[in-house]
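I hope you will forgive my troubling you with a question about protein structure. The full record is reproduced below for your convenience:

——
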Amino acid sequence: MTIYTLLVDFACASGLILIGIFLRAKIKFIQETFIPASLIAGFLGLALGPNFLNVLPFSETIGSYAGLITIFVFASVGINGFSFSPGSMKKDLNRMGAYASYKILTMAIQFSLPIAFSILVISKVAPQVNNGFGMLLVAGFYGGHGTAAAVGSSFEALGFADATDLGMTAATIGILAGIFGGLIFIKWATRKGYTQYVKDFSKISDDLKTGLVQKENRTAIGSDTISSIALDPLAFHMALILIPSGLGYLLNTYIEERWALGFPTFTIAFVLALIMYVALGQGKKGVYKYVDDRIVTRLGSSATDYLVFFGVASIKLPVVVEYALPLSLLALSGIVVVVFMMRVMGPAMNNESWFERSIFVYGYATGVFAIGLTLLRIVDPENKSKTLSDTAIVGSLNTPIELFAWSAGPAMLMGGQHWTFVGIFLLIGAVCVAANIIFKWWYLKTPLGERGAVENEPIFGSAQE
């Protein structure tokens, strides 16, 4: 492999991604189903690449790109740091506390029930699966292609050779389940009158359908925080992400050579990025006066599009065929879980604007943040439900739990501690339900038709701002 091999691979990927956005803009079925251009391109790459027709000049290394890009994506998340507003949390405690508990419960159930189902049931039907097989479902559904690549690499280091391909397949199934299932739920909710801000599904903007934003609706992706005479602003922000990415790899290599310990590189890169965030200014002080989190987010999202492409395009079809039955059973169990969480636990744990908040978490739990955001924008285009702002505040509560799961999960599941892992997340789920009941954030008996919108609901006796 040479540097020009990398150039050709990314050039082919870019060409297919552009074809994907063209197809999204022109084909009505794709518009109505909101399939991302990167996913369309991934399917084209899978069909035309070395694992099927072998028409395009992809190299044999395209399967390794997903793991590399994952490090960059996680570093971009870490470099944006975290925010927490105690004043806002206190003011909207009922709404945000219930929502935080609901989000964590959704994650905990995905980390426990499908894994238990895989160990108890799927392993009996398909003896070739191991105790770690069930985690590929949550890595793909909740984590997405990036996490699937990272967790797959961890499993491969522990001897589960097919983990990355299966994780990527699970992530692809998750995106499709998120999009198609989400649209079905949205149409159902609008007919029932459960949506608070959009009453007619057919009136969704063309910008969302085609993916092409009209001139009058365009917004800036960031600001020039660095003078281009000194350094281009994109280069500045790219450097902030690449530093923890590279250092994460070097530090992990050193730890492995020095102490024979293996950690996911993406986790180390994420932690280093958080350390940089704190050391270089803590939020908007110091160096971070010149960091635009929108640019960092866009760079991470751009990398994610390529990650989705290479993740899907490099799937080894023989592996998928070999695991077709257990993978189908696992995916079915995952879909049952997320549908139950959306349809039953969503209204039970969220009161005002319950559907908008639940459909976002449904999309998040099947196709990562981007799918959740797409579904939310359909039913709440102006974020009147405050789902996004609440997510930004309570999202940090998920981070330690996720880091533990992605980092320790593969080793625990493959090392005989599978029931300990499952038990930890069942306990977390039980705590969430108990918290909602204790703090009276339990709304199962409130008729769905009587639920209001967030901005119309009084909080602590005063009108919501």
The longest helix spans residues 93-125.
